[in-house]
Amino acid sequence: MTATDDEQLDKLREFWTQYGKTIIAGIILGLAALAAWAGWQSWQAKNQTAAAIAFHQIEQLSAANQPNQAMEAARKLAESDQGSVYATLALMIGAHEAMSQNDPAKAAIYLNDAMQHAKQPSLAALAQLRLARVQWAQNKPEQALTTLKAKTPPKAYESMFTELTGDIQASQKNWAAARAAYEQVLAAPDSANTMVQIKLDNLPAASVATSSPTASGKEKS
């Protein structure tokens, strides 16, 4: 071995003495991180499989006309897998079953849970829309309108939110607000909503909806 070789070996030994423990610790940490990642992926896969099975059971309970069991199973899945697709869809089934039992208050609880915790914006918007409909059915129009404004929906849902706003306003004889909502829906690009046009056409004419102070009474002399 030449002198140069000895020098290189000495440098390697010095380097290893100084940094060897750090390198080994880094390798161990890296291997531990890889093991943790693999374990997490395995846990997630198992969790998703369990949620899928639970959701299928809820669907079967609903189809078998067992509303109470379906609602309870939906509640449990929502607690164990909060915010997931399966949990959100389960809550919607629970709300449907509650409405079939004439229990809109319970349906509202399920839908509010789905709206607040859904991780998918489209599912959250769908729950929000259904919650507003349930509140309207409970004769709570102002609460329904507040729900519709609680979160901005994805663009694909905007016209449905606006149309429902118009429906609620029309039910309260707020003709101007209903008209504005329906016109907004029809003004959207590529809008061809015949039903909304019919609703708009059936509203009282603006001149009739806004009566003058003396229209229903005697004129002042």
UniProtKB/TrEMBL annotation:
Coiled coil: none annotated. It is found in: Cell membrane. Its main location: membrane. It holds the Pfam family TPR_21. Gene3D superfamilies: Tetratricopeptide repeat domain (1.25.40.10). The keyword Protein transport does not apply. The keyword Nucleotidyltransferase does not apply. Keywords: Cell membrane, Chaperone, Membrane, Transmembrane, Transmembrane helix. The chain crosses the membrane at residues 19-40. This is Ancillary SecYEG translocon subunit. Belongs to the YfgM family. Residues 13-204 form the Ancillary SecYEG translocon subunit/Cell division coordinator CpoB TPR domain. InterPro entries: SecYEG/CpoB_TPR, TPR-like_helical_dom_sf, YfgM. GO terms for molecular function: protein-containing complex binding. GO terms for cellular component: plasma membrane.
